[in-house]
Structure formats: C-alpha cells, structure tokens
Amino acid sequence: MTNQQSEAAAKPELESTTIRAAVYRVGAEMVVQDIPKSLESYQQLVGGYIEVARLPDDLALVCNDEGINYGMPPNRAYRFYNGAMGLAFGDFFVCRTEGSAFGSLTDDDIQRLPSIISRPRSGGPHQSIYVMEDTK
C-alpha cells in the first residue's frame, strides 16, 4: 500500500450534513427530502421546540412539543414502538435513530411507513377519537 493510500484509508468518511427524512405537512402528501442536521432546521420544520416519539424499527417521529396546545390541526395517527397509538399535530418528520442522533431513512423504511403512519379519521360526528385509516 502506498503512503497516500494508507492516509486515505485512515481518514474517516466525511459525515453527511443532512438526513433523508419523510416530511408530513398538514393537508399534504408525505414527501421524502434531505433536511440539514441541525436543531434549528428541525425546529423550523415543526414550528417550535421538538418532541421525539419512538416508532418501531429504530424510527423516530419528530414533531412540535406543544402542537396541540398551539392549536395546530391533527395531521397523522401513528403507532409507537410498543403498539400504542398517538396523534401528531402540525407538521412533523420521520427519520432513523442512530444512538442519540437522527439518521437517514432507508428505502425499506419508507416502504414500511404506511403501516406505521396514517391519516386520522374521526370516529363520528360526536366523537373526538381518532383512529388509523385502513391501509390495506
């Protein structure tokens, strides 16, 4: 191995400055986009302080910490890692977790999202319970 090859092998890969995430905006279809890896960009996307909900398969839903208190509209129902259901208010995104950091979604992750996240539907005109739409 030449000296230049040794130096190149010893250098760690450059860390990406973005993550590939699924972005869910209220009233819009999900889009996959690259988001800058910074707290400020996460907060800008969700419209305030962030809250992280653990989803199955090392995925995370990142939403506004007080979306419901700020009167943000319901966006999507989701399934927690333990099978319990939740409801996200306002815009949010889904990414992978890599230890204590956020990471990029894989193609397989994106294919699995409809089984974890769905548009909420009301249980009826006098019910305030939201359930997941049947994705089948």
Structure described in brief:
The chain is built from three helices and eleven strands; from the N terminus they run αββαββββββαβββ.
Topology, please?
Blueprint: H1 3-10, E1 18-24, E2 31-36, H2 39-46, E3 50-55, E4 59-64, E5 74-79, E6 85-89, E7 92-98, E8 101-103, H3 107-112, E9 117-118, E10 120-122, E11 130-132
Antiparallel strand pairs: 1-2, 1-7, 3-4, 4-7, 5-6, 5-9, 7-8, 10-11
Report on this model:
Strands 1, 2, 3, 4, 7 and 8 form a 6-stranded antiparallel β-sheet that branches. The chain has one domain (16-132). The protein has 3 helices and 11 strands; from the N terminus they run H-E-E-H-E-E-E-E-E-E-H-E-E-E. Residues 5-12 and 125-129 have low confidence and may be disordered. The protein has helices spanning 3-10, 39-46, 107-112, and strands at 18-24, 31-36, 50-55, 59-64, 74-79, 85-89, 92-98, 101-103, 117-118, 120-122, 130-132. It starts with a helix and ends with a strand. A hairpin with a 3-residue loop joins strand 3 (50-55) and strand 4 (59-64). With 136 residues, the chain is of the alpha+beta class.
List the defining traits of the structure above.
three-stranded antiparallel sheet, alpha+beta, six-stranded antiparallel sheet, 136 residues
Order of helices and strands: HEEHEEEEEEHEEE
Q: What oligomeric state is this?
A: single chain
Which value, in Å, is the CA radius of gyration? 18 Å
Total domains: 1
Quick check: average pLDDT? 84
List segments where confidence is low: pLDDT < 50 over at least 5 consecutive residues.
5-12, 125-129
Helix content: 10-25%
Strand content: 35-45%
Which sheet architecture does the biggest sheet show?
Answer: 6 strands, antiparallel
Structural class: alpha+beta
Distance between the termini: 55 Å
**Strand tally:** 11
Count helical runs.
3
Overall spatial form: globular
